[in-house]
Amino acid sequence: MKDETIKNKRSAGKVVSVVSEALTPVIEGLGYEVWDIEYVKEGAEYFLRFTIDSPDGITIDDCEKVHRTIDPLLDELDPIEGTYNLQVSSPGLERDVKYDRHYAALIGEKLEVRLFAPLEAYPGRKAFTGTLESFADGVITLRDGENVYSIPRDAVSKAKTVFDF
Question: What is the pTM of this model?
């Protein structure tokens, strides 16, 4: 079973790579940014998820427009064996921060950052919340009031934006 999981992750990565290379230019040509692409299994079903963004925000009409544009292209490309569900959505207010380009785009935004393990500089702490001041040379700099935290990107297990309701 473990070998099958590893194989599925490799094939999921390949699917994402193939569809990203083929469809990101198409989606960008429609005026949207591709925030993320995922190919995942949930329960018995597989999902190919495109998360799109734009400076003006994303509406259901935007998602439908992208879906209708890429659906026939995916049929031609045929990157996935078997059936799957295609989903197009916005990243939302509290969006996952996964890639270096996300950190670079979110300077000045409030983030919650969770670590794999506490860092030597901050013993016992595995979570930080603060304003992203900078991201350079693989280091995330967060400010929480008077406190400034420098966190290596490779120590982060999960990060997301925080919206104060």
Answer: 0.80
